[in-house]
Write a structure and sequence with these properties.
Arc Repressor Mutant, subunit A; 2 strands; globular; about 55% helix; mainly alpha
Amino acid sequence: MAKTKHTIMLQHNPPLSREEFFERIFWKHKELAIPASKIYQKIKAGMLNIHSREEILKELNITQMQYYNILSTLIAVGLVTKQYGEYKPSGEFVKRLKRLIEYVET
């Protein structure tokens, strides 16, 4: 399976809020930043499963396409992983940042 690539906007100042952080991930579609933040919080709390999709679509007023776009982007940037049909938080994003810092410092 090919890896999906995704660009995160780095700016002069660090993000001041969770929403701003997600705006930098979803910079092409900023309207998805807040729903993405809420979906990520649900994943971290263990509240997202295949049965909760319809409820989340209604709660966040997003389409099924937007929902899957958010999930695939969260996976691509390394914030989330999908294992055995369940979405879980991933430490991959932090690992990638650490490797980037190591590269810059050497």
